[in-house]
Amino acid sequence: MDEGGTPLLPDSLVYQIFLSLGPADVLAAGLVCRQWQAVSRDEFLWREQFYRYYQVARDVPRHPAAASWYEEFRRLYDTVPCVEVQTLQEHTDQVLHLSFSHSGCQFASCSKDCTVKIWNNDLTISLLHSADMRPYNWSYTQFSQFNQDDSLLLASGVFLGPHNSSSGEIAVISLDNFVLLSRVRNKPYDVFGCWLTETSLISGNLHRIGDITSCSDVESENVNVVKRLFKIQNLNASTIRTVMVADCGRFDSPDLLLDAGAPPGRIFDLGSEGEEEAAGPVLVRAKEGLRCHLDGLLDTRTQPQLAERALETKVAELLAQGHTKPPERSAAGAQSKLLIFTTGCLTYSPHQIGIKQILPHQMTTAGPVLGEGRGSDAFFDALDHVIDVHGHVIGMGLSPDNRYLYVNSRAWPSGSVVADPMQPPPIAEEIDLLVFDLKTMREVKRALRAHRAYTPNDECFFIFLDVSRDFVASGAEDRHGYIWDRHYNICLAKLRHQDVVNSVVFSPQEQELLLTASDDATIKAWRSPRTVRIRQAPRPRPRPFFSWFASQRR
């Protein structure tokens, strides 16, 4: 400024200069004088800084809840849980899964060391209880989930049976006194299980019908009452795995509304009259594979074993025709839920997601038990929807409002056709994180990418992901956890471990806290730069954002 206090440089020129600076330099320059301070907070300036720094596509609008571009820049930089604050080393083997209580006060961990550990989530995390499942003939624990009022914990593991055979088992643990209340067999073990109501859980049972044909019973357990919910046919060595439940009553008030940004084609409505037309590409690919086998029966080019498998599949499909119960439709206003699970129709590799509506009368212990009352012509239950990802599904997670389903998938090569159900196509190392709207049954957004996996089809394992109000996180085989912003579809942070990251979970009460679990036998707690400053500040008032940004450049 001159001696009279008039700026020597007009605001427009200062603005142009600031456009050439990075965010930290703009904030530092704003400390020089009042004029520069005012220009450094200009909305158009921070709009440019935002798109340039985070490399967001220009056609993506600002988050609907954002007050300004400056505050939105600050949110993405300052509230992402990317600062490691604690490492837990109480497990002695690979940590496979983490789950938070709904209150956020506790969380549970499962591990290859065959324990389920329950932790207190204080400022410093501490171990509250450890349950050793080896006395119950378990090989390891793999999954856990708190019921809605946090009074019970469902723990799932691999059970060793006679002659070293293995299946799954679910244990229910009281969180009042940590007493084991009940155990339920679960087959196959990677069904995992989940809560249906406060006191009812869902498990699976598998019945072999042929060499590559089976049926899965989806069962509801309440105390000592076992009720079969659905009986679903499995073709070509596929099985139902990884069950979860979405509450449809929360669809109309989503925390974040995502716009449809992907072309239709992955989701097929199987409840309509034109079932075969609706299923489109899925049935076309299945028929192409079957046609190859059946044509081969007429000559000697097809291996006998493959011809037998094709014939078995065709017979199973014919058996199901006219013996499958169509989907029930819920009455107007009825509060139903969705059963969601991985499955397939072409190969043992889980390449589809099945969706089946659970009606209110099916969520009680009243009525037929284990299929009583089912018509003699209704062997199987039809699915309502099928999502075909054309790849190997290795993870699923619901948004907090239950409206959006996030799916980790490793894609098959484009145009691949499955000729042998026991030899699925090779899968990509890149993991696609797909997003589906369960209300409109459409794919939304474009696939999120950054994380990778390396194991082949027959060794592939589940990588658990989690979704908070604003973020989605996932583990990966590349020794990192990843965090993306749900609105902007950008990767915000990589969280390093020494081995595969199997599971991630946000605190349901505080999305600025994230836990990661790894094959390196550790659990790491990560907090946002903002909460770290607050915890470390000698005074209640935290350091200004721009001071942190200038000293902690990424």
TrEMBL record:
Pathway connected to this protein: Protein modification; protein ubiquitination
WD repeat residues: 88-120, 494-526
Keyword list, A-Z: Cytoplasm, Phosphoprotein, Repeat, Ubl conjugation, Ubl conjugation pathway, WD repeat
PANTHER family (alphabetical): F-BOX/WD REPEAT-CONTAINING PROTEIN 5, F-BOX_WD REPEAT-CONTAINING PROTEIN 5
GO cellular component, one term: cytoplasm
GO process annotations (BP): protein ubiquitination; regulation of cell cycle process; SCF-dependent proteasomal ubiquitin-dependent protein catabolic process
Name of the featured protein: F-box/WD repeat-containing protein 5
Subcellular location: Cytoplasm
Membrane-spanning ranges: none
Organism listed in the record: Rousettus aegyptiacus
Domain of life (superkingdom): Eukaryota
Record PROSITE patterns: FBOX, WD_REPEATS_2, WD_REPEATS_REGION
Domain F-box: 9-49
Assigned protein family: Belongs to the FBXW5 family.
Primary localisation category: cytoplasm
